[in-house]
DNA-directed RNA polymerases I and III subunit RPAC2
Amino acid sequence: MEHGSLNDPSKATFSFVDEDHTLANSVRFCLNQDPRVSVCGYSIPHPSDARVNIRIQTTGDPAREVLKDGCQNLMLMCQHVRGALDKAVADFRMDNPTKMETKSDSD
């Protein structure tokens, strides 16, 4: 849900339901790397309320578009980390076969 100014699309607060610090801090980090963002922060209104508010103020671009770009960048970062992790696990398994793997391979 977007809570923004009708007169100034460069400032808006977005509410994410059923989310917590994990997503909010990651999105905040990505957005603060964007030179179009002048201010970005998040808050959790109440610990029992599973909702996160992310406030974005840009240098002029619409906050909604900047948020979309930030989420896409976060997704690309996660895909890169997942790929690197999968490769490292596969390399480790190739270099360190377990007894079960070597036993079934020799049968």
About this structure: The mean pLDDT is 89. The first strand starts at residue 2 and ends at 4. DSSP finds three helices and four strands in the chain. The beta strands are 2-4, 11-17, 37-43, 51-58.
